[in-house]
Amino acid sequence: QDDTKVIGVSIPAATHGWAGGMNYFAQEAVERLEEVYPQLDFVLATASDPSKQVNDIEDMVATRDIDALVVLPFESEPLTGPVQNVKQSGAWVTVVDRGLSVDGIEDLYVAGDNPGFGRVSGEFMAQALPDGGKIVVLRGIPTSIDNERVEGFQQAIEGSGIEVLGMEHGNWNRDDAFTVMQDFLSKYPQIDAVWASDDDMAVGVLGAIDAAGRDDVKFVLGGAGMKEMIKRVMDNDSMIPADVTYPPSMIATAIEVTAVGLVSNAPVSGDFIIGSVLVTPENAEDFYFPDSPF
Amino acid sequence: MGVVVSQAALELRQVSRSFGPIEVLHDVDIALRPGRVHALIGENGAGKSTTMKILAGYQPPSSGDVLLDGQVAHLRTIAEAESHGISMIHQEFNLAEQLTVEQNIFLGRELKRGMFLDKATMRNKTRELLGRLDCPVSPDAVVSGLSNSDKQMVEIAKALLRDTRVLIMDEPTAVLTRSETAVLLRQVRALREAGTAILFTSHKLDEVCEIADDLTIMRDGRVVWSGAAADMDEHGMATTMVGREMSDLFPAKLGEKGDMALEIRNLNVPGYASDISLSLRQGEILGIAGLIGSGRTETFEGLCGLRPATGDIRIFGQKVRIDQPWQAQALGMCYLTEDRKTRGLLLEKGMRENLTLQTLERFVERGRIHRKGEEAALDKAIADFDIRGHRESLIKNLSGGNQQKLLFAKTLLAEPRIVIIDEPTRGIDIGTKQQMYEFIRQLARAGQAIVVISSEMQEVIGLADRVIVMRQGRIMGELQDEEASEDAIVRLAMGVGGNTPAREMTQ
Amino acid sequence: MKAIAERRLSMSVIGPVLGLIALLVAGTLMNPNFLGWDNITNVLARSAFIGIIAVGMTFVITAGGLDLSVGSMAAFIAGLMILMMNTALPALGVGIPVVLLGMATALIAGLAAGLLNGLLITRLGIEPFIVTLGSMGIYRSLVTWLADGGTLSLDFTLRSFYQPVYYGGIMGISWPIIVFALVVVVGEVVMRSTAFGRHCAAIGSNDQVARYSSVRVGHVRLMTYAALGVLVGVATIMYVPRLGSASSATGVLWELEAIAAVIIGGTVLKGGFGRVWGTVIGVLILSLIGNLLNLTDFVSPYLNGAIQGAIIVLAVVLQRESKAAG
Amino acid sequence: MKAIAERRLSMSVIGPVLGLIALLVAGTLMNPNFLGWDNITNVLARSAFIGIIAVGMTFVITAGGLDLSVGSMAAFIAGLMILMMNTALPALGVGIPVVLLGMATALIAGLAAGLLNGLLITRLGIEPFIVTLGSMGIYRSLVTWLADGGTLSLDFTLRSFYQPVYYGGIMGISWPIIVFALVVVVGEVVMRSTAFGRHCAAIGSNDQVARYSSVRVGHVRLMTYAALGVLVGVATIMYVPRLGSASSATGVLWELEAIAAVIIGGTVLKGGFGRVWGTVIGVLILSLIGNLLNLTDFVSPYLNGAIQGAIIVLAVVLQRESKAAG
Ligand SMILES: Nc1ncnc2c1ncn2[C@@H]1O[C@H](COP(=O)(O)OP(=O)(O)OP(=O)(O)O)[C@@H](O)[C@H]1O
Ligand SMILES: Nc1ncnc2c1ncn2[C@@H]1O[C@H](COP(=O)(O)OP(=O)(O)OP(=O)(O)O)[C@@H](O)[C@H]1O
Ligand SMILES: [Mg+2]
Ligand SMILES: [Mg+2]
């Protein structure tokens, strides 16, 4: 009993598509690893805001005596102090996706690349509209992540002749994206393409375009790698010529690496940056996982 | 008492008051003098309450002057009037229901020690004030749980707390029994001795005769008579008020008893009444007498499904079970509440909505409410019960007596075969009272079975064919028409053994 | 007296209408497309969900209640409906039967959810705020759990079949608008001219008086929650074909929006007085604000919420101010 | 009759306490560390924010009002405070002056925000629901805008200096707990033993009566909102050192949590009766539920919300049931 080790996993709640996928992969990994390693115990907590996440982490330390923490910070700043406290208590710390605002706290860092996500998207856009064009952009929930992505995107399209007509927040939400896109369509008589920046928002955007019956929009670029979207890329759907990955499964990778490190006494530390890849009909098959909920 | 011409403490000169285009007071003059009790009487809707509100600074006059010690005064706020020593007891309760007695009495003028409330002193003072009024409620009792008469006593205590030069009382005795009234009048006399100017309204003319020094009679918003009270007797007052010769107050007890309408065996209302058994025939008026708090209201509320109760009930021979008030109504039995303001009428709605609330189904045609039918019913109610006040006005803007009439009309619209009327004439002027008694008797003649609960002994005796007296939640005895006298009722109400000179008989 | 009452009434009537007109004028000035057929249809169709729910909420609030759970309830019902339809699909095949099954599911689930709220409130006598705060959490969790944290999506072929329920219509007017209009008309009639509507107002005004007047207080209250539940079901029936999905993000904050619409429309939050047509104006004001902010870009999108908030308050100030003046 | 009333009262007093005890027992059974010093301190300290706000909310609700804006207000004040401190840092240097400046900012901003809500409600006579729904949107937007969509962070060195205000304390009891306790004691005394507390209850019970008794109704109402604003400021002073940042996600749904705590504690939502100690129990019940769910992992985290919702309803049922029985 004494050599049972406890791993705490703290992630944001499933309030939008990508987070939902991430929740799924986290739970799936926990269940799988609990079977493989009976000597490991997992505590999984989901938080709806940063301060709830801090509560969760405090509880894990105070009542569950965790030996390792895998955390996907809701926001970097507020979580930095509390995670630092966990580190000081001697536990192993794995940080996923969003870096903390002080370097060197985490033992292991597994992350996507938000500016890269924006950049890849922007580069695709520039290449798909070689003569320039008019696009609209749907942004996510106002957060630093969203800011980084948009900045990356804007840098990548600079000088390509692409004109961004408007940007609004669709909050990574299908319904909000639908509403925003409907209004964009009323507002701008000519839109060449849409950067929906997220596959959930792409669903809403496509719904609005279909409903309006507009054929000026040549394509919609989403992001994150939702299976339905990858499928459409694979099927050479002209509206969805490509997608940009930002895999929610990175949390599973992080949990697994942490678990293995804990049981094998050969801890793996360092930074793992999972770059965003452009998914095109050529390589789409490699990114298509029909069983995933996301 | 001779006419003492002292300087009026508070006076209205040529005051008129309009609500919108309708003028309800026309050139009213009235003067309140220190050390004298001034009675203001008049029919329902004559403008008594409005006059009083203007005197106490609750409403400004539309034209005319309010004079304080002979000087024209503009009492802009209640606080200002209060600072001049004017206080008023409202016709309708003016208490915060969720607060305790002590909190209500001291509301707005809490005693403090430093920053904090001096609760001990306030509680003692409350106890003392209530003691002066022979009112046994605890200072910590929550007002919503009090009986109407206790609420009234709390109101009075609240006014007594203020050092008043002018005390204005709008029907303070409407919900009081005689003994409580006697206590109140004792206080009024004491204040008069101390030099307070008092204005007083009541529809009980005997009280007016007993206490008033000066008298003003109003009709339709005008002063029609003013002078020394000694110059007028009860009959004269009634006639001047109503504007016609008054005949006998109570109708003749003619009528035939029919089938058994209601039989109650061993009705128990936990906490209030037990072992209540009685029976009632069609065409009969049964009076229920008893002291306040004797559980009369609760007994019949229990009967009608308004509070938990158990017992054997038969209606027209059928054994029935009533858990909800609408079940009682479906069986043809209705209860008319004594508490028009919190249980009887929707104050924020108009007359029409209130009138038909209880019987809406009857006005529904093909799923929709038939507006014309409602209007017709309202026309009839206004005519039958002589309801005065603007047709479109909200209930809260009607005069108290007219509210009571509307409540009466509302319940009777359900055409119940058995009707229980709790305090039917509370706040009703003498002319209308006569009409209502006539009306109740007509209902009986038409074959309805009627229960009248009343704290006015005259009313029970004059109206009922048979009287049941309750005490502490039990039936103490039953008196046939000829046996029913004030003396007999009081004996039963006070407990059979006690042939003491009852306090009820102080007058 | 009468004149005052009438004048006051008429100003409180004109208030929200004025607010709406002001918005329309502002919108037209800022963007000529604003009053275009397409934009108006879009706005009306997307207001339909909140609108249908808000009509039900008008009754609940008029009768002195409150329901915070409607947004989560909608999400849960949408999830259930999608699951049900997807499960039945292999057996029934794409066609009307499976869509009808889905619709029946939505209506029955809505009714059940509404009754549950209503029973807890009327039978156990718990504050509506607490009951529906609780059920809000419960439904939100359940849909997340049903969707396994992700999104429940309607089978693609089925969705194409079902889609006309949102996008189609008759004579260029789409179904959600038609259904919304129907619900409003029925709601208005019920509120104004039936015993039920009268009873709601009486109960909200003073439930003791209603009880003493033989109104079946518990029953009427229960019915308001049940009706609201069914209307949430109806709204969901229109919602699902739009994007064919439900997730934990579905219907978030719909409850606040619905309540706000009801109150902007002049219904009294403490109960006793309600008007359905006012609610419609409230709904339109709210969705037009969002629409306007998207159609123009004179402020940072971060400040959209601030402008929205300010306009909501202003719309009501307008109404109350003129009331006070009248 | 009297005996019944008393017994009823005492059961409504015992109700929430019983709920709390039940939770404590359940927690101890599930995890022995639950009653440990660390865990209890954690829970109390983190309850302090909502708790301090809920005490103010108790007064607002008792006086017949409502405030939906407190969560956004807290976020906005936190943002403002951080901006102010960061801006003043170069001039003042890390030290007590800059922290005091931040605290003053929070208190003044809280007071101003509370007064603004209160003035709109009392002077213009708009429904509190609408005013505070509006200001909720406004503050939420403003903080997003101040943070440019991201997060406002306190300078790191300053943060380490300021942190003891959350993490430090005297005799092992951390500051938030001490401040919370103080606020509760003062709140309880004000509610029970000052004219102000009585006036709040009287206004909530019947504002007409209060007005007739020369209570300054508008003034008292205004004061409740102002006090709540200041308390939001106080809560923010404790909050900023904990997380050192503010963003649009700060304080989301705090308003609902605070209102729920107030009502679980036995204060009547329609006003007229309030008790501060009840609110404290409500706050503790709510945070213990969250804590308990982290103690074990016997259910899917997706269902946490459902359990939370069910427990809230149960806690109140317990209270009402025993009341009805008593
Ligand atoms: N606020 C108001 N708005 C409109 N009409 C009013 C208002 N207050 C009183 N009235 C009207 O003024 C008239 C006089 O009412 P008042 O209350 O003074 O009568 P009253 O003599 O006290 O009658 P009662 O004996 O029934 O109490 C009534 O017709 C009443 O409807
Ligand atoms: N035994 C009692 N002890 C204390 N309070 C009592 C008792 N009986 C009645 N009361 C109080 O009196 C109230 C009932 O008074 P109420 O006046 O309605 O009684 P009633 O017998 O119907 O009298 P009436 O019909 O003459 O008014 C109760 O709500 C309670 O507050
Ligand atoms: Mg009167
Ligand atoms: Mg009685």
Automatic annotation (TrEMBL), chain B:
Q: Name one GO cellular component term.
A: plasma membrane
List residues of the ABC transporter domain.
10-245, 244-497
Record protein name field: Monosaccharide ABC transporter ATP-binding protein, CUT2 family
Q: How does it sit in the membrane?
A: Peripheral membrane protein
Q: Which GO terms describe its molecular function?
A: ATP binding; ATP hydrolysis activity
Concerning Gene3D superfamilies, the annotation shows:
P-loop containing nucleotide triphosphate hydrolases
Membrane spanning segments where?
A: none
Keywords in UniProt for this one? ATP-binding, Cell membrane, Membrane, Nucleotide-binding, Repeat, Sugar transport, Translocase, Transport
Xref: InterPro entries: AAA+_ATPase, ABC_carbohydrate_import_ATPase, ABC_transporter-like_ATP-bd, ABC_transporter-like_CS, P-loop_NTPase
The reply to whether Repeat figures as a keyword in the UniProt entry is: yes
Pfam families associated with the record = ABC_tran
Task: Write down the CDD domains for this protein, in alphabetical order.
Answer: ABC_Carb_Monos_I, ABC_Carb_Monos_II
Name the domain of life: Bacteria
Q: Report the main location listed first in the record.
A: membrane
Q: Where in the cell is it found?
A: Cell membrane
TrEMBL record, chains C, D:
Q: What are the protein's UniProt keywords?
A: Cell membrane, Membrane, Transmembrane, Transmembrane helix
- Domain of life, per lineage: Bacteria
Any keyword Ribonucleoprotein? no
Q: Which GO terms describe its cellular component?
A: plasma membrane
Q: Which InterPro entries match?
A: ABC_transp_permease
Membrane protein topology class? Multi-pass membrane protein
Which molecular function GO terms apply here?
A: transmembrane transporter activity
Q: Where in the cell is it found?
A: Cell membrane
For whether the record's keyword set contains Repressor, the answer is no
Stored Pfam families = BPD_transp_2
Q: Membrane-spanning residues where?
A: 12-31, 43-66, 73-92, 98-121, 128-147, 167-190, 222-240, 252-269, 276-293, 299-318
- In Swiss-Prot or TrEMBL terms, this protein is called Monosaccharide ABC transporter membrane protein, CUT2 family
